[in-house]
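Researcher: Next entry in the queue.
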Amino acid sequence: MRVKAAVLRQIGLPPPYAASKPLEIAELDLSSPGRGEVLVGIKAAGLCHSDLSVIDGSRPRPTPMALGHEAAGIVEAVGEGVTDLEAGDHVVLVFVPSCGRCGPCAAGRPALCEPGAKANGAGTLLSGERRLAFHAEPVNHHLGVSAFAEHAVVARESCVKIDPNLPLELAALFGCAVLTGVGAVVNTAKVEPGQSVAVVGLGGVGLSAVLGARLAGARQIVAVDLSDDKLAFAVKLGATDAVNAAAPDAADQIRRISGGGVDVAFDMAGAVAALELAYAATARGGTTVTAGLPRPDSRFSLAPVTMVAEERTLKGSYIGSAIPLRDVPRYVALFRAGRLPVDKLLTHRLKLDDINEGFDRLREGIGVRQVVVFE
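Model: Structure for this entry, 375 residues:
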């Protein structure tokens, strides 16, 4: 079948993207799903910094590539061997397809699936195949999803079936922003009621972490960002305090507000300076969690003595240390119960043809989560 999709052919074109147009809206050939694969009609796809980092070259990927990894849609057909999904099922797409058999998967850590990571790096589906082409030229898949398109063929392992009554434009956010941000709080850090928390970087993932900290019962949530508008928004979502990261004494402010540093600090910005700030704001005996993705050549330095003498912990969190088949339905249920107001994160709806302008807004920090909505 033929599908309209946003294709990245050249990495690193200069902003503004409305002028340079790194994403070309093109007609691609999409093959039928193979064994263990699913054809999904995409209904909503969120714009995320992980997409932007491919566009600007921070996270190089093979090109040409059909971008988009945070999405929800409706199953239209299934390939051979898929018996637990059928046409009409609503699904959230997850950007790490976990094989269920490798060492990390067997240990209950599907976010670290080794075949999934290999396929994502190569621009293929979990099977190693590509189902997209432009005039017979193969087009790479983005994180096994390629959701900035009318339809996608994905591995069965990339799909999580959800309640069909959940609006799909909200469901899309559960595939990345919510899974990563809330998961970093409840899975990676295991924040306990009464603890103090700081969240550095208030994009969709960081604000999801604010929601997660509130859900976990944190007594104090310090929001930290360069944007006063984002700080005000975080307070509306439940943050108890706000600190502008541009202040030269930002770390001292956080430590003063929290009485010596927070129990858990999260870096959600994907910048070394943000990680350094989060680490500096963490109390003795506390934990610093980073879920941001800086450039691969970035380096972070610290005094190792603090790890020992202060019994500090520094942890990474990828896709919120999630078990998607467990966590996505759980977070959806919490949203329906009014305990996880994910709907407040959705600030812009746009058409596929306007996607370059959407990435300009994301680059400039305007809004929170933008979603391409397909009719």
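Model: The chain has two domains: 2-175+341-373, 178-318.
Researcher: Noted, moving on.
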